[in-house]
């Protein structure tokens, strides 16, 4: 019998490895559990902070009770915040209702903006709490590996090619051609007349990665270009970033007609060049006069908020229905009507409908209409000295 160092047989070696592995696994489980508990504690603090920010009066009321908000579950806190936010939304909607008195246009739009902000905060809160609740109910899991960009996508696009650069621009939201050509040329540092620009469009179309929507009735024979599902997947493989729905398709779903969508993008571009902030997907407005979904909500550098409508002239509605439409718009905007039109025909049609409505309207109307091409021309000619009010080709006030 040997009393020296123990001889390690294969069996004892395996037993030692299993024990070491078990200790390692146990340590990892403990560490993950501690991390999960820390995440839950941080989430609770964040949720309570949100409650104190959005509905302080409710939190103050709870502090006077036993046990107070600190002892409430995440779900109960969430439900309480949602109820309070809805109450605030109802109160704001009540304040924004038509009362027969002349209201400031900026105040009306600001109220609806606040309602929209509360709705968005409500949705964000529900999403976060749902994730936190699910995380609290499940054992901690290691994070999934981050998507890694690839030098070449399954579509065969090289990450450094003009085609990949063009697809990236399209998936990021630039949808107007020829503006896309200018953006691609600037990105690549080449002339817009270079043949590789046209080749890039043709290659993406042939591979089924983009689709085009021709636009009629506007100067320059423009079109809209958006990614297909295959294009979004190819972009994800090249950049590592997933975009489920392109900005263009969100707008197409909202406006239905490609021409109306294109004109919204053009009007937004014009406003941004003048220093305005632009919201292309504002919330629907509802009052006792009906419901109204604005095309664009613009905020001036000075903070003035107003609605901009877009007209292609393609509507087949009767004059009576058109008159009713502009009355509803005027009721929601305090009588301030700003309309960007596709061409002279659309402007004349819109002007006739608004002026017919004005003969029956019982309040003040401030009307500004413009043709998009002429507005861009005036902006280019005037440079930095041009203001938006200078670009409306038709102005009229009805008292």
- How many domains in all? 3
Averaged pLDDT: 78
Second-tier CATH architecture of the largest domain: 3-Layer(aba) Sandwich
Portion of residues in helices?
55-70%
Uncertain segments of ≥5 residues (pLDDT<50)?
1-19, 99-103, 130-148
Strand order of the largest sheet: 4-7-8-9-10-11
Structural class: alpha+beta
* Residue fraction in strands: 5-15%
Biggest beta sheet summary: 6 strands, mixed
Instruction: Kindly identify the CATH topology of the largest domain.
Output: Trna Endonuclease, Chain: A, domain 1
Describe, in plain words, how this protein is organized in 3D.
With 399 residues, the protein is of the alpha+beta class. The chain folds into three domains: 19-137, Methane Monooxygenase Hydroxylase, Chain G, domain 1; 162-248, Winged helix-like DNA-binding domain superfamily/Winged helix DNA-binding domain (Arc Repressor Mutant, subunit A, Orthogonal Bundle), CATH 1.10.10; 256-398, Trna Endonuclease, Chain: A, domain 1. Helices cover 56% and strands 13% of the residues. Strand 2 and strand 3 (223-227) form a beta hairpin. Helix 1 runs antiparallel to helix 4 (105-137) and helix 11 (319-333) packs across helix 12 (344-358).
Nutshell version of this structure?
The protein is an alpha+beta fold and 399 residues long.
Give structural attributes.
Methane Monooxygenase Hydroxylase, Chain G, domain 1, three-stranded antiparallel beta sheet, 3 domains, 399 residues, six-stranded mixed beta sheet, alpha+beta, disordered N terminus, 14 helices, Arc Repressor Mutant, subunit A, Trna Endonuclease, Chain: A, domain 1
């Amino acid at each position: 019998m040997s009393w020296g160092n123990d001889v390690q047989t294969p069996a004892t070696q395996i037993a030692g490895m299993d024990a070491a592995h078990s200790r390692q696994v146990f340590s990892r489980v403990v560490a993950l559990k501690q991390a999960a508990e820390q995440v839950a504690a941080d989430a609770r603090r964040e949720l309570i902070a949100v409650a104190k920010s959005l509905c302080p009066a409710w939190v103050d009321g709870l502090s006077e009770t036993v046990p107070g908000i600190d002892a409430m579950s995440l779900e109960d806190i969430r439900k309480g915040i949602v109820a309070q936010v809805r109450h605030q939304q109802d109160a704001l909607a009540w304040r924004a209702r038509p009362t027969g008195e002349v209201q400031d246009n900026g105040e009306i739009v600001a109220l609806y903006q606040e309602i929209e902000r509360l709705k968005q905060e409500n949705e964000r809160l529900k999403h976060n709490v749902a994730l936190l609740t699910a995380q609290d109910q499940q054992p901690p899991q290691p994070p999934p590996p981050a998507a890694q960009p690839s030098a070449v996508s399954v579509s065969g696009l090289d990450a450094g090619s003009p085609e990949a650069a063009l697809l990236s621009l399209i998936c990021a939201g630039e949808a107007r051609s020829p503006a896309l050509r200018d953006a691609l040329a600037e990105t690549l540092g080449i002339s817009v007349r270079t043949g590789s620009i046209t080749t890039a469009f043709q290659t993406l179309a042939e591979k089924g990665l983009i689709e085009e929507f021709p636009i009629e009735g506007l100067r320059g024979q423009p079109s809209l270009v958006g990614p297909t599902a295959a294009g979004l997947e190819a972009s994800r493989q090249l950049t590592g970033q997933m975009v489920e729905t392109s900005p263009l398709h969100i707008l197409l779903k909202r406006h239905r007609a490609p021409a109306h969508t294109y004109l919204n993008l053009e009007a937004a571009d014009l406003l941004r060049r003048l220093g305005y902030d632009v919201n292309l997907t504002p919330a629907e407005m509802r009052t006792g006069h009906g419901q109204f979904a604005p095309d664009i909500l613009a905020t001036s550098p000075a903070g003035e908020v107003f609605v901009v409508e877009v007209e292609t002239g393609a509507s087949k509605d009767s004059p009576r229905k058109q008159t009713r439409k502009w009355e509803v718009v005027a009721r929601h905007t305090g009588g301030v009507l700003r309309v960007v039109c596709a061409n002279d025909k659309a402007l004349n049609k819109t002007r006739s409908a608004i002026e017919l409505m004005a003969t029956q309207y019982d309040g003040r109307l401030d009307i500004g209409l413009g043709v998009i091409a002429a507005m861009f021309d005036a902006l280019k000619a005037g440079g930095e000295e041009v203001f938006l009010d200078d670009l409306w080709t038709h102005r009229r006030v009805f008292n």
